[in-house]
């Protein structure tokens, strides 16, 4: 937490990780043990019975979402305040006290972090909005509709209306048009229902936007695909080169004789110099100059013992 100049979360990271695993399981296990899940349902409530939505879905999710949104809003507010303060600072860091320099450093970190805050803000904001609207939809309409059964008065009236219209020879569309008028006040509002379902569907789109708009996402995928596509070529090349370097005397059956390694320093240095000269570049030119100087001083080229400059 660079903005708050605190490593409290890092110091307790193990506890946070344990909480993030144990807390959801504490509500998911009773649903499985008591067989409280049901289908069909509305939206993500199909995982839990309507009468158990608050206990096993809304309350646990709210424990995560609302505190996270509050913390994010407070942190972003502090970052904006620090960024506004930094624009008023004209003196150099060398002329400030230690506390002032630390404050300016924190402000510059806040500016850098503020540019990347739209992704977590969009993520948390979308989840919280979806949860709130769906929760309101559940409290206003769905909760009362869940209590409907075969003994409900308005439902019996609707069924009777359908039979009467069928005896009158009306079509299915005409029956629904006439009988829906009596059932409409007791059904969930179509606008609430549409908003709840659309926001839940948009949640996946927002999650995709958060990740695919990061350059690192495409770079990592490109790196992975590049490795997968070129791994076979590198493997075939290494196998062919190993077959080609096999000694004819071995006839492909190998040899039990020990391998002799030349550790003479001059030979090893010359091999390195040849490799650098083969690749070219400034390093190669400097190696050529030093090699020529070495040969001239030792009399290996031109007149013995005569220093010749390149």
TrEMBL record:
Positions with biased composition (Polar residues): 253-272, 287-301
Transmembrane regions listed in the UniProt entry: 12-33, 57-77, 121-140, 190-212
Leader sequence segment: none
Region (Disordered): 233-310
Gene3D superfamilies, A to Z: Rhodopsin 7-helix transmembrane proteins (1.20.1070.10)
Biased composition (Low complexity): 237-247
Coiled-coil positions: none
Keyword annotations of the record: Membrane, Transmembrane, Transmembrane helix
PANTHER family referenced in this protein's UniProt entry, alphabetically: FRIZZLED AND SMOOTHENED-LIKE PROTEIN N-RELATED, G-PROTEIN-COUPLED RECEPTOR GPCR FAMILY PROTEIN
Annotated protein name in UniProt: G-protein coupled receptors family 2 profile 2 domain-containing protein
Source organism per UniProt: Linnemannia gamsii
Lineage summary: Eukaryota, Fungi, Fungi incertae sedis, Mucoromycota, Mortierellomycotina
